Automatic annotation (TrEMBL):
CDD domains: S1_EF-P_repeat_1, S1_EF-P_repeat_2. This is Elongation factor P. GO terms for molecular function: translation elongation factor activity. It comes from the Bacteria. It holds the Pfam family EFP_N. Pathway: Protein biosynthesis; polypeptide chain elongation.
Amino acid sequence: MISAGDFRNGLTVLIEGNIFQILEFQHVKPGKGAAFVRTKMKNIINGGVVEKTFRPTEKFDTAHIDRKDMQYLYSDGELYHFMDVETYDQIALNEDTIGDALKFVKENEMVKVCSHQGNVFSVEPPLNVELEITETEPGVKGDTATGATKPAIVETGASVLVPLFVNQGDRIKIDTRTGDYLSRA
């Protein structure tokens, strides 16, 4: 159990049957009345963000989130298959659970599978990935002065905005959290 007065960023708590991660918190002590804790929390199951206030003495259960490294094997259309590299156990997750987490992840790459009490609720891709560009317009010499970008399709089928000097066949580094181009690999 943890009290609202002990909240920290990144802490996961169980509130009314839902698991929330504390994104921001602020202890407020108004001149008149009792102190309270204002929080911004993300529901880790459905991704919704809510703002709530609590009395500092309110108690909540902490929710332990298991993050396990697993290898993404393949997709057969409706299910995505993952394998634990230590025990060779395999699990299959549907598209609702995955969302767009795998749009920059190739087969046989390592990802983190997040679960609470054995129920998998999300997949976290690596922070940065290197992918090859399969389709983009050729760059024109002299067009790079403005820092302009053009769309490109990478080998996983996702679309990324890249600088004009990047060509088809180049390997690039992508930030999977934002989908932004970082550099050439």
